[in-house]
């Protein structure tokens, strides 16, 4: 999907059809004082939202505005990535119904505009697991960014470089970098370093391994390399975590 924060400037849905392009995307909108009606070019499906409706719309290419107006609100978070990590922590049966070209998730009550406010609200929807959430989340899971995150989660924890991963994924290095930036919402190298540190720290908590074995297991060249990375990303030395994780010190 297109980056959720595509609309950094104030944008209205009248202008959106020009900017929507050929990719699926997530928009956060606030409806005007008249009903907002949308349609999909390849079907007879229609969606109408009442005045002042506010929430998330996940749309495939081909959705167009028929009538009404709505303000496109800034989205300071990457929902596909958030959905991916929610799915890593919550195991539920897959939604088996056909997913329409547009799915919506209404904001009931006041939701702030900050990253933490939107992410907290969306996580709460995941716990409630309503039918609307099931359809909406299924739309996110069908996006290429979600598939790329699955690929990175499987392949990018041994210190591999993007230029080595690109041919495995089947695209050029430059295109792979663009896809990673879109899926991760930032620089791939920095994000993947954080992932690797998080997984290494989790290994320290869950197992009784030495720091050296944890370092080698997660692709660090030495225990000193691993220690430096922990200090850079977390702010403390691994030795400070020995008592917490009950690791044998070296």
Automatic annotation (TrEMBL):
GO MF term list: DNA-binding transcription factor activity; sequence-specific DNA binding
Alphabetical UniProt keywords: DNA-binding, Transcription, Transcription regulation
Cellular compartment(s): Cytoplasm
Highest taxon of source: Bacteria
Gene3D superfamilies, per database record: Homeodomain-like (1.10.10.60)
Xref: SMART domains: HTH_ARAC (SM00342)
GO biological process, one term: positive regulation of metabolic process
GO annotation, cellular component aspect: cytoplasm
Listed Pfam families: HTH_18
Domain HTH araC/xylS-type: 146-244
InterPro entries per UniProt: AraC_XylS_family_regulators, Homeodomain-like_sf, HTH_AraC, HTH_AraC-typ_CS
Entry function: Regulatory protein of the TOL plasmid xyl operons. XylS activates the xylXYZLTEGFJQKIH operon required for the degradation of toluene, m-xylene and p-xylene.
Alphabetized PANTHER family for the sequence: HTH-TYPE TRANSCRIPTIONAL ACTIVATOR RHAS-RELATED (PTHR46796)
Protein name, as recorded: HTH araC/xylS-type domain-containing protein
Species of origin: Pseudomonas fluorescens
């Amino acid at each position: 999907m297109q980056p959720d924060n595509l609309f950094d400037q104030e944008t209205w849905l009248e202008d959106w059809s020009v900017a929507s392009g050929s990719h699926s995307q997530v928009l956060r909108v606030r409806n005007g004082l008249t009903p907002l009606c949308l349609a999909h070019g390849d079907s007879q499906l229609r969606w109408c939202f009442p005045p002042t409706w506010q929430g998330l719309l996940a749309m495939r290419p081909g959705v167009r505005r028929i009538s009404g107006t709505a303000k496109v609100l800034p989205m300071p978070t990457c929902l596909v990535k958030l959905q991916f990590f929610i799915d890593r922590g919550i195991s539920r049966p897959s939604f088996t119904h056909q997913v329409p070209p547009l799915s919506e998730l209404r904001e009931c009550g006041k939701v702030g505009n900050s990253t933490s406010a939107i992410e907290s609200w969306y996580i709460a929807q995941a716990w409630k697991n309503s039918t609307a959430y099931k359809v909406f989340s299924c739309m996110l899971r069908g996006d290429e960014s979600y598939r790329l995150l699955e690929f990175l989660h499987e392949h990018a924890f041994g210190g591999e470089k993007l230029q080595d991963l690109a041919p495995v994924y089947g695209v050029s290095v430059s295109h792979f970098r663009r896809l990673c930036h879109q899926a991760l919402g930032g620089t791939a190298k920095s994000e993947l370093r954080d992932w690797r540190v998080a997984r290494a720290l989790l290994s320290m908590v869950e197992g009784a391994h030495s720091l050296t074995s944890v370092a080698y297991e997660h692709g660090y060249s030495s225990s000193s390399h691993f220690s430096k990375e922990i200090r850079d990303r977390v702010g403390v030395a691994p030795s400070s975590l020995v008592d917490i994780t009950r690791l044998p010190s070296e």
